[in-house]
Design a protein that fits this description.
- The complex is a heterodimer of chains A (176) and B (347).
- With 176 residues, chain A is α+β, with helices and mostly antiparallel strands.
- Chain A is 19% helix and 14% strand.
- In chain A, strands 2-3-5 form a three-stranded antiparallel sheet. Chain A has a two-stranded antiparallel ribbon with strand order 1-4.
- The relative contact order of chain A is 0.18.
- Chain B is globular, with a radius of gyration of 21 Å.
- In chain B, a hairpin with a 2-residue loop joins β1 and β2.
- The chains are: A alpha+beta (176), B mainly alpha (347).
- At the A-B interface, α2 of A face α1 of B.
């Protein structure tokens, strides 16, 4: 009969007779114990939750950030593309018109007076950052922190907007 | 007055042994989790206190807070008595272990042992075989098929492995010529504290330690618990501190077994140079050191129990019986014959 080996992963089961020391079992147990005792001194692979933060991939999608431009003006123009793109319907936007004298706050004539993301609805798919025409919203490597109240998971502009003295680096994100 | 002093001395020793056994059993649970974690390249419990050292207390508190559930169809009396029985037999064995040579208090000499029965080994075998009752009664009284299966396995396993255990001890008794634990420990002080029985009874030691693993229901012989097939085995229906008692008694059993292995085969409280130390240092100081040495030996064997647990998988039931009846019993009998021949020739 022809031998078929389609996957190249076929391994023959070994039914060889055990040697005397293998049948004694004790030497083999001691060998196994030698293996485990070596692991006692090996470096541990655990990241302690809450203390260590494990390294994320550069494409990791965590908590969102609303970007400002280099002069500190909000980039978001409240076009609503992100809210439309959002499959989980987590984003709520209320648009407003920029008043004279607010040019240092908002980049264009229209801005979002309310920008809320419900972090319990969000599935962190990143479609909002793909949809955004103004490069205003990005997902970052930060984690959404634990809250004890559902209402606290609705992040407002206060939580989302970056501050100018602590800007969030999004240069690693490769979107297109 | 003499009787009162005796009573006081024994009460203190009993209390100390009791407290030490329980606290070491409690910390064995922590130790087990740490050893398991380290052997698997993990960290283990580390949240309760520094390095997680309050974990046993937290576990105990959790056990007490749980609902104490009694199945409707259970035999109430036996159901309640089971865990206590299991714990009782585990603790009773520690009565005959000599923790040290003696302490000199005033002008009297107090032994560091709860009681020196002249048939200590028989006492240990007897109490250990009573240990099966805790498991059996618990499994039976729960009125649950898994519990019953676990209890059946436990009882057949324990009865099977008591036999080679007793036989391996017979060979030991032949070389030592006594059944008293105190004398066995004292005899091993030859060669300045290195004349350990392991050098006379290497085969007997291997048989004994295998049986000790089986008696303590430890892997590779933990068939009574067998999480995968028996949903926890004989303590399936137990909850709250009753379950805690069962789990706890396993660790108490482990501690006592380790102490017995150390006493019978590894020189007990003796250590190299003990006789020289007794000549040049105060009696009580050396005794304190030797108690510490016995503790270190015991802790090593507890570690060995855990080390083996996290190394080898569980035996299949027929393999277990095969090993017990077809391998260990003939081996133990051969060991007896061999020992008898050597004793006849050279003593």
């Amino acid at each position: 009969m022809a031998e078929y080996n389609l996957s190249n992963r076929k391994v023959m089961v070994s039914n060889k007779k055990m040697t005397f020391s293998e049948r004694l079992y004790l030497p083999e147990i001691l060998r196994g114990m030698g293996v485990t005792i070596n692991h006692l001194f090996k470096p541990k692979v655990t990241y302690v939750y809450g203390k260590d933060i494990r390294p994320f991939a550069t494409t990791y999608r965590g908590q969102h950030v609303l970007k400002r431009d280099d002069e500190g003006r909000e980039r978001c123009v409240a076009c609503g593309m992100c809210a439309v793109a959002c499959p989980a319907e987590a984003i709520t936007i209320v648009a407003a018109e920029r008043q004279p004298g607010e040019e240092h706050l908002y980049r264009e004539e229209k801005y979002a007076s309310t920008y809320e993301i419900n972090m319990l609805r969000c599935i962190f798919c990143g479609l909002c950052e793909y949809a955004c025409p103004k490069e205003a919203i990005y997902l970052t490597q930060r984690l959404v922190e634990v809250e004890t109240n559902r209402r606290d998971f609705i992040y407002t502009k206060d939580d989302l907007l970056e501050s100018m003295d602590n800007r969030i680096d999004i240069s690693q994100r490769r979107l297109r | 007055m003499v009787f009162e002093a005796f009573l006081l001395e024994k009460t203190i020793i009993v209390l100390v042994v009791f407290v030490v056994t329980l606290s070491i059993a409690a910390y064995s649970t922590y130790g087990e989790r740490k050893v398991a974690a380290f052997l698997q390249d993990r960290i283990g419990p580390n949240m309760a206190g520094p390095y997680g050292i309050w974990q046993p207390l937290a576990d105990g508190l959790k056990m007490f807070m749980k609902e104490d559930f009694v199945p409707a169809a259970a035999n109430k009396f036996l159901y309640h008595i089971g865990p206590g029985l299991s714990m009782l037999t585990a603790l009773m064995v520690s009565a005959v272990i000599p923790w040290g040579k003696s302490l000199i208090i005033g002008d009297g000499e107090a032994s560091v042992q709860v009681t020196d029965i002249n048939v200590g080994i028989l006492y240990v075998l007897g109490v250990v075989s009573l240990g099966v009752y805790g498991v059996m009664i618990g499994g039976w009284a729960s009125n649950n098929k898994y519990s019953l299966m676990g209890a059946l396995r436990a009882s057949s396993q324990m009865i099977s492995y008591e036999l080679p255990m007793g036989l391996s001890l017979i060979a030991l008794v032949m070389t030592t010529g006594t059944l008293s634990f105190n004398e066995i420990a004292a005899q091993q002080s030859g060669w300045n504290g290195m004349e350990w029985n392991i050098f006379y009874q290497p085969l007997g030691f291997i048989i004994f330690i295998v049986c000790a693993f089986a008696e303590a229901n430890r892997t590779p012989f933990d068939l009574p618990e067998c999480e995968a097939e028996l949903v926890g085995g004989y303590h399936t229906e137990y909850s709250s501190m009753k379950l805690g008692f069962y789990l706890f008694s396993e660790y108490a059993h482990m501690f006592v077994s380790s102490a017995i292995i150390a006493t019978l085969y590894f020189g007990g409280y003796n250590f190299p140079g003990i006789n020289t130390l007794y000549e040049i240092m105060p009696h009580n100081v050396v005794t304190a050191i030797s108690i510490g040495v016995l503790m270190i030996k015991t802790l090593f064997f507890i570690f060995l129990f855990m080390w083996v647990r996290w190394t080898i998988p569980r035996f299949r039931y027929d393999q277990l019986m095969d090993l017990g009846w077809k391998k260990l019993v003939p081996l133990a009998i051969a060991n007896i014959v061999l020992t008898a021949g050597i004793v006849l020739l050279f003593k």
